[in-house]
Amino acid sequence: MENVITAYILAGGKSQRMGTDKGFLEWKGQSFMANIIAAVTPVVGGNIVIVSSDERYDALGVTRISDIVSNKGPLGGIYSALKHTATKRNLILSVDVPMISSELLQWLVDAHSNAYQMTQVQVDEKSCPLVAVYDRSVRILLPEFLSANQLKVRKFVEELSHQTLSVPEQWSAQLQNINTPEEYKNLNQ
């Protein structure tokens, strides 16, 4: 598994809706970031990289890189990850899915076909391009989008050869994004 796939956890956002860095919020006794690292480790081993300029993440003991191009949102984070990676396949995750499990991530990685540039999951009709496997080659397509400020990840995905997998019902709650204080409060109830 080492050197076959790398996981990148995007945590470079401004967290405007939440009002604080989501990666440091707690769920089940540990930070969102620590929960995601725990879930992804059985899938990728030590190939885990946090994409963030926040040096506090260094305390978690995994590699951290900063965005190559700042203020470009998740698409800029994906670009930074794919420019950094040495592996063909890359698991890209946002920091706001603390309930994600190793089982769901392994299922996604196993289902990804190298015939596609990207494989994402979906729940109901909502696709999740930030819980996805991206081929390293996608990095050559990103500068055009970033320089034109076309920053919608779903629009970018439409340009890729991709597959979308419906998440089995037993895992669907794991993909709930926690972006607002209200969503965080509901998570902890």
UniProtKB/TrEMBL annotation:
Reactions catalysed: Mo-molybdopterin + GTP + H(+) = Mo-molybdopterin guanine dinucleotide + diphosphate
Keywords, alphabetical: Cytoplasm, GTP-binding, Magnesium, Metal-binding, Molybdenum cofactor biosynthesis, Nucleotide-binding, Nucleotidyltransferase, Transferase
Residues binding GTP, per UniProt: 10-12, 22, 67, 96
GO biological process terms on file: Mo-molybdopterin cofactor biosynthetic process
E.C. code: 2.7.7.77
Gene Ontology CC annotation, any one: cytoplasm
Function: Transfers a GMP moiety from GTP to Mo-molybdopterin (Mo-MPT) cofactor (Moco or molybdenum cofactor) to form Mo-molybdopterin guanine dinucleotide (Mo-MGD) cofactor.
Free-text comment on this protein's domains from its UniProt entry: The N-terminal domain determines nucleotide recognition and specific binding, while the C-terminal domain determines the specific binding to the target protein.
Protein name in the entry: Probable molybdenum cofactor guanylyltransferase
Species in which this protein is naturally found: Flavobacterium succinicans
Lineage: Bacteria, Pseudomonadati, Bacteroidota, Flavobacteriia, Flavobacteriales
